[in-house]
Amino acid sequence: MKRLVSILLGVLLAVGTCAISGAAVDGGYTWPLGQALPHFSTPAATLDAFSVEGRPFAERLTASALQGLVNRSEPRIFQLDGREGTGSPNQWAADLGLTLNVLSGYLEAVEKYAGCVEGLIIWNTAIPETANVATTAAGILNALPATPAQADILTAAPYNFPVLKDFRDETAITDKYSAYQYLYDNYWQDCTKRTLCGLIPDNHTQLRDFAVAVRAAVFWLDAADEQDAAMLRLFFDDSAPIDTYYTGWWPNEPAGVALASQYGVMTIASDFFENYTVWSGYRENIEQPAVPATPKLENNKIYVSLNISDGDNIQYDQHYLRSTNLWLHPRRGEIPIGWTFSPLLLDAAPSIMNYYYTTATENDVLICGPSGAGYSTVQHWSSNSIIDKYAAITNDYFERSGINIVTLWTWATPLKVSRFAAGIPSLLGMTSQFETGPLQRRFVNGNTPIMWFGSDNLASFGSMSYDTGNANMLKRLSAAAERTVLFDRPQFFMAQGNVWECNINDFLDLRDQLEALYPDRFVFVRPDHLFELMEESLGKPHNVARNGTSDTPEVFDGSFATGLEGNQFTVDLGGEFLLNRYVVKNRGAYEAGAGNTAAWRLQYSTDGTNWKNADIVSGNEAAFVYRSLCNERARYVRLIAENPSPAVIKDIEIYATPTGTGEAFWNSFCGFFYDIWNWLNNTWHSIGELFSYNWLG
How far apart are the first and last CA of the chain? Predict the structure, then answer.
């Protein structure tokens, strides 16, 4: 897939120089509040590239710092490493059409871009943590971290850099804690407060271009250790809930994510993410594919959706996901799979997100890993304000990425989950990791289905998680098939495979084994279809427009990347339904900043001839519009654009329930009692939650 790269002209100095002389220049990236990660400016048409594969840590550190200093104003340096793209060192660059000028090594780049560097910061190799302190200082002082051996080279011709700081001379730095205390006392006040960066001091170099460019504090502290945690709180106390993100990774994942979640700081697993300052500069409209029609709901069928973890991790999205075990597997597309993915690729690398969307089959669905716009643990959310802000930013990223399913990590309580779901109107369904016992609920706030992972006691709805192959999934799904189901009602299950031990072959083998044991009993479906079928089975409102017929199918296909310009958009739902709500996705859903439809009428009819108004909208400015309806009986629905007319409508969703007797009545009957059960269950345990968990402020 090739890209047309636009060039910003006349705003920067010539390639090879930098507009840096003492004061830093931030003109190359934007980072408004409400945006999780920064957008760097459009990269140069030709990028200077050099290989860092197999090079010592010290060299990689210096090279990454140089990349951050140079790319801060305009991305011009690209590092080549065998990890990126899981193929050759420039696999992504080749696939996405980047033009590279390959240099002999990082020292050639240092000489070429010497104008971006004010001097050197020598770190003490006897105290590895000073490499992190030096990285932090490098972003503030526009300097390069260097070992004493490197300094011997870089202070001589042709570089002639002065030494700005030598940490060997700092007698106050004797160990890890004094090193990070020195960072806090001397540099923290000048660091960005939008991110905290956790990187192993003598290992991770991939994300340091980002850390240097944005002037992030870099440290490596274990939240499970009392002394480390006390030092972490120094930094967290200056953080702003949801406006501060923790990038990189943790020495101890559960403890680190839990501590950050208490502060409303979401983790972005990114310690091996490469060339952030380049990839975030390519701004693209997201090419969300159309969603195929939902399969027909049948009794006595067991519907199964299969997911693959660990896509909350943007480095996984950049690296391992694009491997022959997974996305490049020759049999991908033979079975529906939900691929956990990070919507924050919208900031970090929208072109990489588009690669997955434009190469997806109809059986591939991108869903969100835990727990939305950044990794967090639900049980540690400490206030209503954190939940509300996290839900709002998650909804924004869901709308703009086309993702509408989220996994909650690790266990969820009714009050918190209900509030979170209510703040995400774009949400289709949820999964809950390791949720067990009486909190296993089926619907949140009445309409949002939830599937829980980790249960061995599967009823008609259930899931299994982090399976390492098909043996355990086969055992539990076979048990479901053997169970007598009341009135032969359909059953629904979702299974998630541990990506590091499970791949597409395991899923294909599972399908074949179940078909051999229970012919024509199991139906494997996409995760979005599974949720829609669950809703339909219990008489819940579900999107009926996508399965209807229309002269403008591009407006009802579930994608904001399609759509049409016109005055009127009509869909035949194929039968009579009771209208519950609808969603309009305007031009701004696909083209950021584009004008949106300001006024329209939504009308309904039972015969296609006589029409009535169901809703009238005026003065709209939003790209995504969510509107309630009043159970109007309709077979036909149309939207008439009034301002402007014609207008560009990207997608329309119509949520409704069937009318009539028979199956429709039985579905509604089941749904009614299911709602009562859910209400009693959630109310009882919500009361318990008030006494058992942190009060929500």
Answer: 49
Mean pLDDT calculated for residue range 104-120: 98
Type and span of the H or E element at 276: helix 276-279
Q: Which amino acid is at 635?
A: R
Task: Please tell me whether residue 199 adopts helix, strand or coil conformation.
Answer: coil
Across 12-106, the runs of DSSP E, i.e. the strands, are: 29-30, 39-40, 46-51, 77-80, 99-102
Give me 165's structure tokens: 């700081």
- Torsion angle of C-alpha atoms 232, 235, 240, 241, degrees rounded to 10: 0
Whether 454 and 434 have beta carbons less than 8 Å apart is answered as yes
Residue 379 has pLDDT above 70, yes or no: yes
13's CB contacts (< 8 A; 6+ apart) are 19, 115
Q: How far apart are CA 566 and CA 252, in angstroms?
A: 54
Residue with tokens 């991108």: 366
Q: What mean pLDDT comes out for the span 8-33?
A: 51
**Three-state SS annotation for 613-655:** EEEEECCCCCCEEEEECCCCEEEEEEEEEEECCCEEEEEEEEE
Flag whether the pTM goes above 0.85.
yes
Angstrom distance (rounded) from CA 510 to CA 302: 14
How far from 208 is each of 96, 134, 139, 193, 272, CA to CA, in Å?
23, 11, 10, 16, 10
Poorest-confidence range of 98-102, 152-156, 157-161, 417-421? 417-421
Six-digit token string for 379: 């049980």
Residue 343 contacts residue 399 (beta carbons within 8 Å): no
Average pLDDT, the chain: 88
The burial class, CB within 10 Å (0-12 / 13-18 / 19+), for 292 is middle
Q: How many CB atoms lie within 10 A of CB 45?
A: 11
Is the preceding peptide bond at 644 cis, omega within 30 degrees of 0? yes
pLDDT: is 499 or 273 the higher one? 273
pLDDT of residue 670: 60
Pick from 451, 448, 470: nearest CA to 460:
451
pLDDT at 423 over 90: yes
- Tell me how crowded residue 142 is: count the other CB atoms within 10 A of its CB: 25
Task: Read off the DSSP letter of residue 88.
Answer: S
What's at 25, amino acid-wise? V
Q: What is the DSSP string of 573-616?
A: EEEEEEEEEEEEEEGGGTSTT-----EEEEEEESSSSS-EEEEE
Q: What are phi and psi of 542, to 5 degrees?
A: -145, 165
Residue with more model confidence, 433 or 456: 433
Burial 325-361 (b: 16+ CB within 10 A, else e): bbbeeeebeebbbbbbbbbbbbbbbbbbbbbbbebbe
d(CA 216, CA 211): 5
Residue with tokens 């993410």: 273
Check pLDDT > 50 for residue 5: no
Rounded CA separation 136/406 (Å): 34
φ and ψ of 450, to 5 deg: -135, 135
Express as a percent the part of the chain with pLDDT over 90.
73
State the average pLDDT over residues 479-494. Answer: 74
Burial 644-674 (b: 16+ CB within 10 A, else e): eeebbbbbbbbbbbbbeeeebebbbebbeeb
C-alpha span between 405 and 578 (Å, rounded): 25
Q: Are 431 and 463 in contact (CB under 8 A)?
A: yes
**Helix (H/G/I), strand (E/B), else coil: 539:** coil
| Residue among 435, 372, 34, 53 at smallest CA distance from 206 | 53
Dihedral of the alpha carbons of 125, 126, 129, 132, in degrees to the nearest 10: -10
Cα-based distances in Å from 586 to 176, 214, 517, 555: 53, 34, 48, 10
